[in-house]
Write a structure and sequence with these properties.
The complex is a heterodimer. Helices cover 21% and strands 35% of the residues of chain A. Chain A is α/β, with parallel strands linked by helices. In chain A, strands 10-9-8-7-11-12-15 form a seven-stranded mixed beta sheet, sandwiched between helices. Chain A has a six-stranded antiparallel beta barrel with strand order 1-2-5-4-3-6. A two-stranded antiparallel ribbon of chain A has the order 13-14. In chain A, helix 5 packs parallel to helix 6. Chain A starts with a strand and ends in a 6-residue tail after the last strand. By secondary structure, chain B is α/β, with parallel strands linked by helices. In chain B, 31% of the residues lie in helices and 20% in strands. Chain B has ten helices and 14 strands. In chain B, strands 3-4-7-8-9-10-13-14 form an eight-stranded parallel beta barrel, surrounded by six helices. Chain B has a four-stranded antiparallel beta sheet with strand order 5-6-12-11, with no helix packed on it. In chain B, strands 1-2 form a two-stranded antiparallel sheet. Chain B is globular, with a radius of gyration of 18 Å. The relative contact order of chain B is 0.16. Classes of the chains: A alpha/beta, B alpha/beta.
Chain lengths: 254, 300
């Protein structure tokens, strides 16, 4: 893999999609050319040493020379990111991580929960026409069920679930996924969302292969600090900035 | 004019090194490694180590706390698989060595005879393992014993990376010199603890090591203090983010510096530090560093 470099990218648009969820388009030709589904960018949110580290954000979409990041404000760093203005420049390191493998199975069930919906869009764009896809999206409520229109424009009709029942199935997105996947024993699942959601999918669908985006505290994102350890079932750890962030969840401890 | 610095039998083309544990084995960013004075590898132990459970990193304003716990492939896998790949590096290679007994340090050092290894840095100060490491670094007697044990097995340049956790590094620096060290690195991370809201330790290894800019003033103090009292070349380390920071450490008495945490933010950081440092040198002397190293004490 070619080693990543940092670059300054101009912010083309930056808007709120839902409470605490933002969409950021940046003009970054080098990244747009080379980024693959599953890759992430490490975003610098401060000039000085507070916070010291960058914030890793998965790529949500690519169009021409532009790259889209959709993120949720979860702490100080992402709050600082949310204040970046259109026209200003932002320091990006990437693309980082290993591209998500295309599952060999003909049929792929996609499951996105909350902000985990974001990186699945670019991944699904790559799989459309190559695999038979069924997409499930879940969130707390209707307004946080982001990117529905974008999935729709790919010719897909995502099945929806909300915790409060404001749209689609009332309850966790795993419920309709499990009901559907029971009928599709030869499918693979690709998921992104909170850990309990991923763990539930792996446990209930076993031995169906479940590929998922994993989140863990990152240091560098480029494989040199060994901080992002994910325990393997067989013992030891993987560095998911090198072997992930999309990994076969059946082999790791969630 | 030359920018090179000589320590023991090793000549470094410039004084900026990538610090251990923040640069892997120098292979991910060769375009940077090849232009540095040298790189220090991740700590190598006799046996392979999985490292600590996650989370391994915590952030606070001005720094980070890590508890990687010396994850490494162990001596044999390093020798057979990693070292040959490092052949293509054009920079000096310092292998960082950690152990749990003086004999382990000696064995690892003794078995790494490859010409690709220019020097060793004995890590007597890793705070992230329960025995050995950091505890050794707090005892001048142990530092001397470990250094002697390693010295007896190699003629390569020998550096001892010291801690400032609960010990005066002047005492351990003297011990390292008595044991036959060619230089000391000051300082390794300091102990740190991060807690969750419920009071539970945040890091998988319970506590960790503080690094980053927050460490810098204390590290600088340690370099200045040891430089005044012990006649030994010092490699300065602790929160260096810019050329000016590197210059500060050299003024305080360091003849080389290491860039660590800054590389996690930007893989080009160590190279940028070197290029910025180079800009600050007047260029009128045979050695660029003649008027710089230890300049601070002239103001006493």
């Amino acid at each position: 893999m070619k080693s990543a470099t940092s670059c300054l990218a101009e912010i083309e648009s930056h808007r709120q999609l839902a409470d605490g969820i933002y969409s950021l388009w940046v003009k970054a030709p080098r990244i747009a050319r080379s980024v693959r589904p599953g890759n992430f960018l490490n975003v610098r949110v401060a000039d000085g040493p507070d916070p010291v580290l960058r914030r890793p954000i998965s790529v949500c979409d690519v169009k021409g020379w532009s790259v889209r990041l959709v993120y949720r404000v979860v702490g100080r760093g992402t709050r600082m990111l949310s204040r970046f203005q259109v026209g200003s420049e932002i320091d990006l390191l990437g693309p980082l991580g290993k591209p998500a493998p295309r599952p060999p199975e003909r049929e792929v069930v996609i499951c996105g929960g909350g902000i985990g919906i974001a990186p699945l869009l670019y991944l699904v764009r790559d799989l459309v026409g190559r695999r038979r896809l069924t997409v499930f999206l879940g969130a707390k409520n209707r307004s946080e069920l982001i990117l529905r229109r974008e999935f729709g424009s790919l010719g897909l009709r995502p099945r929806l679930a909300t915790d409060d029942g404001s749209t689609g199935h009332k309850g966790p997105v795993t419920e309709p996924v499990l009901a559907a996947a029971a009928a599709a024993r030869h499918a693979a699942v690709v998921a992104c969302g909170p850990r309990p959601m991923l763990a539930e999918l792996v446990r209930s669908l076993d031995p169906v292969p479940v590929w998922g985006f994993v989140e863990e505290r990152l240091g560098c994102g480029s494989g040199i600090c060994y901080c992002c350890a994910l325990p393997k079932k067989s013992g030891g750890y993987i560095r998911f900035c090198q072997e992930g962030p999309v990994v076969r969840l059946n082999g790791v401890l969630l | 004019m030359t920018y090179s610095v000589r320590i023991g039998g090793t000549t470094f083309p410039n004084p900026v090194l990538a610090a251990s544990g923040t640069w892997g084995f120098g292979l991910s960013f060769r375009r940077v490694s090849d232009r540095l004075g040298g790189i220090v590898t991740k700590g190598i132990t006799l046996e392979p180590r999985d490292g600590n459970p996650p989370p391994r990193i915590h952030e606070f304003p001005g720094g980070i706390i890590n508890s990687v716990g010396l994850e490494n492939p162990g001596l044999e896998a390093f020798r057979r698989q990693v070292l040959p790949a490092m052949d293509k590096l054009k920079c000096r290679v310092i292998v960082n060595v950690a152990g749990f007994t003086p004999g382990e340090y000696a064995t690892v050092v003794g078995r790494l005879r490859s010409r690709r290894v220019d020097a060793f840095e004995l890590n007597v100060s890793c705070p992230n393992v329960r025995t050995g490491g950091g505890a050794f670094g707090q005892s001048p007697r142990m530092v001397e014993t470990i250094t002697k044990a390693a010295r007896s097995r190699t003629n390569k340049t020998l550096i001892v990376k010291l801690t400032a956790n609960f010990v005066d590094p002047v005492d351990t620096a003297r011990a390292a010199v008595n044991g036959g060290a060619d230089a000391v690195t000051l300082i390794n991370t300091l102990h740190g603890l991060a807690l969750g809201q419920d009071g539970r330790p945040f890091l998988g290894g319970r506590s960790g090591g503080i690094s980053g800019p927050a460490l810098r003033p204390f590290a600088l103090f340690c370099v200045d203090r040891v430089a005044a009292k012990v006649d030994v070349p010092i490699i300065g380390s602790g929160g260096i983010m810019s050329g000016q920071d590197a210059l500060d450490f050299m003024n305080a008495g360091a003849c080389l510096v290491q860039v660590g945490t800054a590389s996690l933010v930007d893989p080009d950081a160590a190279l940028r530090v070197w290029l910025e440092l180079k800009q600050t040198v007047p260029g009128s002397r045979a050695s660029a560093w003649e008027d710089i190293v230890g300049r601070t004490r002239r103001f006493d």
